[in-house]
Here is the input.
Amino acid sequence: MEVRSFRQSSGSGIPRRTLFLCLVLLISVVNSDGQKKQKQSPHQVKTKPAAQPSELEKLRQEYIEKAKDYKASLEKLRVLYEADERKAETRLTQSNDLYKQGLISKVQLEDSDHAVAIAKGKVSEVQQRMNGADTQIAQAVVEIEGDKQMAKLGRVPKGGFVRTASFIRYGGAGPWLLSQAGTIETFFLQRFGRPLPIAVFGQGAIHNQWRLDHHNAMDVSLNPDGSEAQVLMDFLRRSGIPFSAFRTAIPGVATGPHIHIGLPSHRY
Here is the structure.
């Protein structure tokens, strides 16, 4: 009934072709509006571009690849040296038999024994070089991870204070020199009746290994969560002295819980 009514009304009123065109236009407008709303949806997830590696990271990655190639070449050399070692040992066994039979002199036997020692020395040397390559690769990886951790720590402005689950950092209120350490030592001695437990004063071996500039800082062997450490950190803040307190080890940055007094160490 409704269809017939529509045909009758359309036949006596607006032409069917005109109605059809209007319907198509209406559908196009609705679709276009829906697409715009979909694009402008506040729930749409925006993807962030991937962070590009720094020049230092690129150099370290290249260094790691070259160290791996170097180790691979040493592996091939070790195979050759080990083959020479087996041959020398076989000749020594034969020389021992010939010497017992009186067919060769003692000097010839000693030459065979000396050849085995030389072959073993070459194998040992190439193995040490391979171990050195492993150490260099591991060190580069540690430095890369350490730089990532240091980037997460971020820069804290003067007077700024940051506390996280793994570290505490105070930016200090003014210039800092390692010569100010005496004031801190005196405070700790008067407060707790024992010397300040300084682990490293200035640049240490671990900082050289990690290529960290620690010349103007000192590390104190106190867990930041301990009562003495809490009092010390409060004194440092009141005195405007910058510090970083680590609750746990961070590869390439901290070997374990301690308080680093001074500005953050930078990689060189």
